[in-house]
Queue: 4 jobs
Job 1
Amino acid sequence: MFSAPDDATAQRMRTARAFACTTLTLTDLAEEPIWGYAGRTLSGAVAGAQGTGWLRLVAERPDKAHGKLWDGPKTAQQMLPPEIPRPVLHQVHDRQAVGWAYRAELYQHTDATVISRSPVLEHDPALPDAWWAQLRTGLDALAEAATERIAVREEYIRRAVPQYTGRDVGDIEWSTAHGDFHWSNLGGPDLTILDWEGWGRAPIGFDAAQLHLYSLPSPTTAARIRQTLAHVLDTPAARVAELTICAQVLQAADRTPFYRDLAGPVKGYLDTTYERTR
């Protein structure tokens, strides 16, 4: 949910999307496709032989078109259990052209609507009870999934948490996480979890902590998250996850508007929840 990039990038991505639609025998239905950060992705509805779908186009320099982020959606489709509600990835098509690598990912189309255009929630979305039950079930299933992928590196945690929060890290317990679990990646009224690029191992409670902290501007929703995910968030192991999310927000506050707006509530949460150790 980002603004369109510069004209040259926008034209290059639109051309690549049109090429992908031709290659995959798809009709582009997106009058206003959705841009990712800095024009790295371009997504929107398409129609094909199997009906309506969703085409996500990703661009990288060829030397970076591999590894965790590049292969995240494909490995999520292959490895994660069906209890985790997400669109089915039907097809992947790779192409290189003029210094860029492109990956077209054709997904099942869902009727879910993204809950917020911003990762940070500023209003109560009034989600049904079933959505909250699906949230708990889905995160519990994800936490138990086996993987060697890394969503958050221990080196980063042990450096950033003391630097940006003034708290010590201590022992870290790990589970599997989505890794970017915010309101722009969640749909409703039936829960749908989008954007599986960065999934992998993270401190226990990482996704729950991120969703809670990104909801602080909406106290009603933040309280509902604490209630629904108390079995994770109210454990000692979740402390590291919360501190890591706080560090990420405070680190990026000077360069990203929604982090800047969230920095104040996060600092307030830190001060009322965790005693400063340095």
Job 2
Amino acid sequence: MRIASYNVNGVNGRLPVLLEWLAGTSPDVVCLQELKAPNEKFPREAIEGAGYGAIWHGQKSWNGVAILARGCAPVETRRGLPDDPDPTQSRYIEAAVNGVLVGCLYLPNGNPRPGPKFDYKLKWIAAFEALAAELLALDQPVVLAGDYNIIPTERDVYKPERWTEDALFVTDVREAFARLTDAGWTDALRALHPDETIYTFWDYFRHAFARDAGLRIDHHLLNAAAAKRLKAAGVDRSARALPKTSDHAPVWIELQ
């Protein structure tokens, strides 16, 4: 089972790129972030035409998350975080797909910092950690995939000294990610590629992709049952090179 996560940065504006990537890679499950579309504007017919069932949690102009499943309909199990600090923002959706529980998340960016956006990020992380603690203990495989807007370590960012005061890299958020992995969640990419330079996001400015000046902020966290089945993980960098593409690349794992 291949489970991918892709911040599409506008599902309708990037639809040709999304469909090309789906046709070329055929992932079994896809977690999408930053739909930037209300529920009624989600391109359901195009997604179904590509062979995928879908559930989505949209929002006009901002945020938005969705889960796609190849050849079947995801069974929705949760929409929004329990104790979400701002339920008007569409940032979490969860579904069961072929015996795996998949949570799709778009964690707040938090910039500028300090300020209300960073305060909201910390509150959202706290609510997410509480849910993750419940899901961690489940016997079935659980995968929490999405754009975490967290750079876990210095090796996950080009020139880390430039990011020390950014909301993606400050101590508070890095410690939150470390708490998740210390509790027992497996960072899938790092579990299989512990020493490689791996990025999932490259800014549109200053030829960042061409220079490989990127960040690793899109992650799959796996509970013990899922981690035991982990066989492969990677980043589809070729999608980032397509015309009119997202500034993120799809990230994927394979479970036995």
Job 3
Amino acid sequence: MTPNATASVDDSSAEVMSSVDRTQSGQRLIIADISRDDAWVAVDVADALALDDWQ
């Protein structure tokens, strides 16, 4: 993943999914727009915020 952020685009055809993957160092939360190349972020589950914390 590149560290550069790009401007958001209003694309009603976007398909966003998430998963929790196991790695050797723990678990990672991955959020990806599967309708675009290289449009994803990953974070350690321990560092991810609960949905209630986003409100």
Job 4
Amino acid sequence: MNEMTLKDAVEEKEYIVRQIDTDDEELKTFLFSLGCYEGEPITVVSHLKDSCVVSIKDGRYNIDNQLADAILI
């Protein structure tokens, strides 16, 4: 299976976070605080020009494409 990131995700389809591909601990902590970590379901609500809107648990968040690229699904 190819590596797929949130940037490649189909809108409104639920995925499971497989891995957070970053060495930036601050970034990992930030994502964890949103409820975005391995094994958690995540849905891309919409793709924007430089970011995407994701739904995690009961919240919606706008994350930039660099961050979306680090979240493997």
